[in-house]
Amino acid sequence: MTDIAQNTDQSNSGWYMLRISLIIALGGFLMGFDASVISGVVGFIETEFSLSKIELGWAVASLTLTATLAMMTAGPLSDRIGRRKVLMIAAALFAVSAIASAVAPDFLTLLVARMIGGLGVGAALIIAPMFIAEMAPADSRGRLVSLNQLNIVVGISAAFFSNYLILQLGQSELAFAEALRLGEWGWRWMLGVEAIPAIIYLVAMLTVPESPRWLAMRGRDEQALNVFTDVYGAAQARRQLAVVHESLQADTGARKVSVKELFAPAMKLVMTVGIAVAVLQQITGINAVFFYAPMIFEQSGIGTDAAFMQAVLVGIVNLGFTVLAILLIDRIGRRPLLIVGLAGIAVCMLTLAYGFGAGNYTLTGVAIDALPADIDRAALIPLTDVVFANNVEFERALSAAIGVDVFQQYQSALVSAAADLNPVLILAGILGFVACFAMSLGPVMWVLFSELFPNRLRGLAISFAGLVNSAVSFTVQLVFPWELANLGNAVTFLMFGIFAVVGLVFVVMKVPETRGRSLEEIEQLLVRV
């Protein structure tokens, strides 16, 4: 009878922890949604607020800027007020950001609203996986923590689908769509709909207990024991609490870690590997694709509707290959995934460079006659049958002929009418790139970060590498629209491809395999005393 009761207790505890983890991991969903929903908005706000390419980049990258700030402060704040409260604040920030973005009367207000959302993104990125890890049993910790990463990917996919659905409803004649003015305010609804899951997350977090390790750290042992009992069962709860107290006592006597120690000679190899992987994850262009997907697809001449639909495919592929990576990372190792993934990224980016570079843009007389009536056809007559070798020449010529504002407003229609590209090749390149990233650099970077650095320096080293990663991400997001407009599609993707080739060479030469090795063995391998 005792064994049956104990098994029942463990089963109930397992379901309880799964439910709690799923709720906490909704922070990852909101993070992915908030980061990617802007992809469907950029074309509309560029026209609405008459933005330059750098201003458009700021509309996207501003979120990453404040997310970096939140990543640096969320940990210490959670030590003061608790993990649960920080995530509830993050949920409130997501809701405020969504509503403020939706009603923004000008670009500055939209920018501030996005930056508020960035604070939520940074807090959720740091605290949600830590919160789950502090509660989960060791034998299920990896799977439960990975729910957060999985939810980030689901959130990205949901944002792509939500944008497409709102776009389609806005073009319909359904009564409720007209009542909500989805056609006129489509981009505002795209941003505002995030308030719904944010409010759900805020309410759901009320049912989640505080981290038992944080409670123990604050001397609230009785509450910590109650949470451990729910997670581990009564038989194991006191033992877990005792282990936490032993760890806290050991930390009390430990010497405070200094940033200078990260750059000691013994740390040269491990920091080189960590920083290189942090840079490589972003400089190969993943957030350019995630945050500007419809814009990229429109450049191939397929039109707005098809561009939004293909962005949905990006989300689905990202989700599927992230799941594949989770299944493979402990079976075949980190290094093989990185090598295969980077090789694929290089091939796909070079394919995109070829696809855009081999095409041209030509407005025939028939194409000009089919353009929207608001476009001055007479101004386009001198450009009839002129072949433009790339998008830069085409966009500059048309902007000079009909005006920048008119070109931005009807850019999709004009590109669709003139582009002579292979859209299937471009779609294959983008989807292939996302698949290769999702099974390699995406999840593997964070796993490597948790393994590469010595135990005593791990927290500080991960924060530093994360800061480098965010800085590169911010730069890529900021300059990508400018690159497309001034360097051209082909050159931009060629640069990403070259970075991937350089990264592949670095991984082959310098990055070790960490699968199956203890953290102490990895430290002996990489830290040169």
Layout of helices and strands:
Blueprint: H1 2-24, H2 26-36, H3 42-48, H4 53-81, H5 83-102, H6 107-135, H7 141-171, H8 175-179, H9 186-192, H10 195-204, H11 212-217, H12 221-232, H13 234-252, H14 268-283, H15 286-298, H16 304-328, H17 334-357, E1 360-362, H18 365-369, H19 377-380, E2 387-388, H20 391-402, H21 404-409, H22 411-418, E3 419-420, H23 423-438, H24 441-452, H25 458-486, H26 489-510, H27 519-526
Antiparallel strand pairs: 1-2, 1-3
Descriptive account of the structure:
With 529 residues, the chain is an all-alpha fold. It has three domains: 1-208, MFS general substrate transporter like domains (Growth Hormone, Chain: A), CATH 1.20.1250; 262-358 and 424-513, Up-down Bundle (Growth Hormone, Chain: A), CATH 1.20.1250.20; 360-420. It is built from 27 helices and three strands. Strands 2-1-3 form a three-stranded antiparallel β-sheet. The protein starts with a helix and ends with a helix.
Descriptive terms for the model:
single chain; 529 residues; mainly alpha; Growth Hormone, Chain: A; three-stranded antiparallel beta sheet; 27 helices; 3 strands; 1% strand
